[in-house]
Each structure stands twice: as C-alpha cells, then as structure tokens.
C-alpha cells in the first residue's frame, strides 16, 4: 500500500538474476507496491516515465503538492494553536489530520519523486525501513481520525448531547489513533529487506523490497487487508454516521436545543451545525475520491499479476499516486472556502504578518491586557485591538 516498495520479483519481470544468495526460487514473486524501476544499462524504450516531458510534469506536480501541503497544513496547525476560540475538540482532531499530512509532505513525497525518476533506491538502509512505514502510519492516522470526528459528531447531534468531549479525553483519543496506526503500519517496516544485485558486470543496483516470511501470497493478503481497513471499512462507518447526522439536521431545530435559550439562538446553532457538517462531509468525499483510483489499481494488481505487464504500468501507478496525494493539501483549502472561522483566522495571520514591520503583534482573538500601554505600546495596542475586532466579528464559538 505504500509508495516506496520496489518490486520483489524484479528478476522475474526483467529475466535478471536474483538480488542475492538469500533468494528463494520456490517462494515465488511478491506482489509489488510500486512498478518496475528504470535501471541504467537496461533498455526500456517504451517506458513513458523516461521521457523528459513526463519527468518535468511529475516534478512540477509533486513539488506543487509538497509546497501547498506544507504551507496549508502548517497554517492550520498554527491558527488552532494561536487562537483560543479555535481550540475545540473537532479542531484538535483537524490539527491531527494536518500533522499526518505534513508527515507525508515532508518525509515521503520528496523521496517518492526521486525514486520514481531514478528507479533505484539510493537513500540507504535506514530510510528503506523508515519511509514506507511513515507513509503507512500517516494514512492510517488520517482514516482513523476522520472516523473519530464522524462518530463524535454523531454522538452529539443525533443523541442531542450538549456536553462535548473533554479536551483531556480528546488528547487521549489522538494518542490512541497514533498507537493503533503504528501497530497497523508496522508490517511495512518489519517485513522489508534492503539489498543489492548486479545487472551486469560492474553495475550494482540497490533495492528496497517487501520480504514476507511465509507464502508468496502473504503480501497480497496484507495489501487487501489494509485496503479494507484503510478505505472500505472507514468509509462505511463514516457514511453511516454522516447519513444519520444529515437526516437529523434536515428537520427543524429540536426542542431540546431551545431549552434555556431563544428560538433564534437554537436556529443559529442548527445552521452552524449544518454548515460544519457540510465541510466535514466534503473532507471525507475529497479523501475518498482522491484515493479511489490508487486503491482500485492496487487491488487490480493484487488480484491479477498480469497488470504488471502493462506498458504504462509505472506511469499509471504514478498518476494515481499523485491524485491520492492531492488529499494532503485539499483540507486547508476546504477550511478557507467553507468555514468562516478558519477563513477569518487565515486572513488575520496574513494581516498580522503584513503589520509586523510596524510593531504590531496578534496574540489571540481576545482583547489584550492594559500592560502594553504602560510599556509605551499605545499604537501597537490600537493596531492589535483593531485587528482583533475584525477577527472576533467573524470567529464564533462554533462546533469547529
């Protein structure tokens, strides 16, 4: 399922000698997670990835994803840390998603790009074990967190529970998502081998492959199991939760929401919940659509090894991987487009950055204490308060 596995059956596809003396001729090939690499000294005239124009497009695509992902997710984490009004349970889970996406953007994608273009593992033994594990970990964290968000909102909205999850419980759940994800992704680091073999006299190629201890079908069984755990099962749970939430929100504001408050206040809360749910559902849809081609292609490879013989196998795999990785920068764009709290916070950060040269500082969306004036910061205080007034007018204590 990860992006860095070379083909363990390279010698079979290319009719080359086995990588080393540990090769077991009776074990059979292990189903690959990445298409056959491009090797120096071996002629692949029909491989589209060798074309300069294709490589330029891939470099631009991966570079764009990395830049947008790092900037967008870092901004999300920063505004949640910076603005007290945004420190809600749902936003902490959203920050957890951003951390997972940052992990992919910084630790995985740059190496994926180099590996795709060169076709040979040149990052050493340690990264051979670390990088596939890191991407598998990040994907699991994302899917588990999306489930947690959906189930938490289902609990609050469908059953009219006004008491939100406590923050200490929230942090415990986040820690649990990382522990569970680490366990689920561990085979990607455990069953792995770093080695080399000679293509021709004087040329040795370094490979980083999956190496399963049992039958040749073990890799396929794990891959299909992860497809179910990472994609189909989470989406089924999320779809069920949001279907019930949406059905509940389609009706009128319930009487329980109006207890102790006016009808208009209940209606406003109902409207905010509908908008927040729309944003979260859109996040899930983007995640599902982005990963669907990659998972479908991976499943086809697991079921029928003849897919590996396709002339454009490497190119198709890479295209589907690029589409999947678009999910790592899509969420910050959705927050800025669909949620006015995030939009106002983003604008406040940029405004604060623009005013920094004039001595202003945006501490939070709450008013600043009077000590600043006593330190001769009257003008700075005025700028900060004006900025905070603009932000406070748009940042409300909503569900997100």
UniProtKB/TrEMBL annotation:
SUPFAM superfamilies linked: Family A G protein-coupled receptor-like
InterPro entries: GPCR_Rhodpsn, GPCR_Rhodpsn_7TM, NPY2_rcpt, NPY_rcpt
Segments passing through the bilayer: 56-81, 93-117, 129-149, 169-191, 221-243, 279-297, 317-337
Key words of the record: Cell membrane, Disulfide bond, G-protein coupled receptor, Glycoprotein, Lipoprotein, Membrane, Palmitate, Receptor, Transducer, Transmembrane, Transmembrane helix
Pfam family, one: 7tm_1
PANTHER family attached to this UniProt entry: NEUROPEPTIDE Y RECEPTOR, NEUROPEPTIDE Y RECEPTOR TYPE 2
Family per similarity comment: Belongs to the G-protein coupled receptor 1 family.
Protein name per the record: Neuropeptide Y receptor type 2
Source organism of this protein record: Acanthochromis polyacanthus (spiny chromis)
